[in-house]
Prior knowledge:
30% of the residues lie in helices and 36% in strands. It has 236 residues and is α+β, with helices and mostly antiparallel strands. It folds into two domains: 8-51, no CATH class; 59-235, START domain (Alpha-D-Glucose-1,6-Bisphosphate, Chain A, domain 4).
Amino acid sequence: xxVRHIPIKEFLQTLSLLSVFFCFGCWSSxxxxxxxxxxxxxxxxxxxxxxxxxPNDWRLYKTAGDVLVEFRRDTNNxxxxxxxxxxxxxxxxxxxxxxDTGNIDKWAPNANKAELISHPDADTNIVHTYFSAMWPVAxxxxxxxxxxxxxxxSGELTLNVQDVGAQYPTAExxxxxxxxxxxxxxxxxxxxxxxxxxQGQADPAGSLPHFLADKVALKSIFIxxxxxPTVLQQYQ
Length: 236
């Protein structure tokens, strides 16, 4: 069995979190503390699996029905996620969903809201997205530039997402995420279904241990893809 040791920095950060939870026992119920302890223990076990992933080595996170989510580490040890699913939808409906920033909280877990900062051209959007987190983890935000492109021959649609957070002021009460990048690929199939592929990564920044952030990121992507068939019906 392959054993991977947790880096001392992240181990100490976890101990600090545990200390916070138990030091505030005067106003936190015993059941709540036990729930948090079980959650952190699960995170530590999960980290052992994630930490084993090597660069260019995709590993399965979870699959159910048509949804498949995988992950790997890039050369900078940043978690990269790849997900795909097949839904009964048109590519145009998915495009309308992604551009409907006012309803992002309806289908993207942990996303509080998204605000359109600017619309430089018909295919480009600058969006500020806000994410909530469970105490004592701080809330996060990101500012991204999204550009739509379509292959003239195949009709395949792609959405390239790049981090532009450094170009905009930080938001009070939020930690700005870094190195955000993603690629959505929408391919209409001969039977009328839509193949959706996603590949992306983001550095949560701050002092949040990566193994905690990784668990949240993978779970969020999986839930997002599970919700797509239902949510997309509203945009047909």
